[in-house]
From TrEMBL:
Protein's name according to its UniProt entry: Septum site determining protein
Xref: InterPro entries: P-loop_NTPase, ParA/MinD_ATPase, Rv3660c, Rv3660c_N
Domain (Rv3660c-like CheY-like N-terminal) ranges: 7-112
Pfam families, alphabetized: Rv3660c_N
Protein species of origin: Nocardioides hwasunensis
Gene3D superfamilies: P-loop containing nucleotide triphosphate hydrolases
Length: 335
């Protein structure tokens, strides 16, 4: 049981129950408020018909989130009962059926959003995409994880992870959708293997549609424990996408040229909090931090067999190595 519906009204029943069935959400319907209280706290969503709102309010159930009054043409009395119950809203059915569809889309999902980690290269070829895939692979063995490709000029994350032949929605399909996308719907629609999903493009002609990204990211965070964004250095979307990340990692080679390029990128990002992940080079950690203005949070050495692993579609973490250690440490620090 995910939805508790308390009503004796046939019209409310007919407006709500079919939508719950279409969303694949279990529903308990109760015509007796006193009996319904046994399921009050355990339901993900509580819908109280305006016909029984007064009786339910008289029982003074415990305040909880996710309570809504539903009915046809609710009056002032319904709003008074909503205040007594601590309900979040009063919904006029069936005209507000689209609202109910959106509410049902996230039934059973996590109460708080998952963590969003962005990874960007401070210089070209620094290995940001590889690190993004490594973080996603490392976390996916423990909890649902999504890695999101926002770099139109990148190699394609599904190819690096050996998922290019897996069915599922790509960016092109999501651009054509409208409205709010449920967390469960997004998680089940993208290409996925075990706990890891990937969102990228299907063809060679690629363009990042920023409004679609804005619409998709909240659903991605609600449906996954970790969302990793592979961010592009170029284009105007980087500052906005960086703002949407809980943690931002800038990957840079420890060379004078690489750190100079990274410093310019950091200046573009402004005052956003970020950590520096260093790749091999001749510049020490202290000097790298001084040049870029970022604290060094990890150093990732070269990994033997990495290119062959990526070419075979195994991803960057087929076994142990520097990437696996760095990914584990960075995830622990983010948590």
């Amino acid at each position: 049981m995910s939805v508790l519906l308390i009503t004796r009204s046939p019209s409310v029943h007919e407006a709500v129950v079919p939508l719950c069935a279409a969303a694949g959400v279990g529903t308990e319907v109760s015509a007796e408020p006193a009996l319904a209280l046994a399921s009050w706290s355990g339901a993900d969503l509580v819908l109280v018909g305006t016909d029984l709102a007064g009786e339910v309010a008289a029982l003074a159930p415990a305040r909880r989130p996710g309570v809504h009054l539903v009915g046809t043409t609710p009056d002032d009395t319904a709003f008074r009962h909503a205040v007594e119950l601590g309900a979040a809203s009063v919904v006029d059915l069936p005209s507000a059926a689209s609202w109910l569809v959106d509410a049902l889309a996230d039934v059973g999902e996590r109460a708080s959003p998952g963590r969003v980690v962005g990874v960007v290269g401070g210089a070209g070829g620094a290995g940001a995409t590889t690190l993004a895939c490594a973080l996603a692979q490392a976390h996916a063995v423990r909890a649902p994880t999504l890695v999101v490709d926002t770099d139109p000029l990148g190699p394609g994350l599904d190819r690096l992870l050996g998922m290019e032949e897996r069915p599922g929605a790509r960016w092109e399909a999501l651009v054509d959708t409208a409205g709010r996308l449920g967390a469960r719907a997004l998680r089940e629609s993208v290409p996925r293997t075990d706990g890891l999903g990937v969102l990228t493009w299907s063809g060679l002609r690629r363009r990042l549609d920023v409004p679609t990204v804005r619409r998709i990211l909240p659903s991605a965070a609600r449906g996954h424990d970790l969302v990793v964004l592979d961010l592009a250095r170029h284009g105007g979307a980087l500052p906005e996408l960086a703002d949407r990340c809980d943690d931002l990692l800038v990957v840079a080679p420890a060379t004078l040229a690489g750190l100079a390029a990274t410093a310019r990128l950091v200046a573009e990002l402004g005052e956003r909090r970020a950590g520096l992940v260093l790749r091999p080079g001749g510049v020490g950690d202290a000097d790298a931090a001084r040049v870029t203005g970022l604290p060094v949070v990890a150093a990732v050495g070269d990994q033997r067999g990495l290119a062959a692993s990526l070419d075979r579609g195994l991803g960057p973490l087929p076994g142990r190595g520097p990437l696996a250690r760095a990914a584990r440490d960075l995830l622990a620090e983010a948590a």
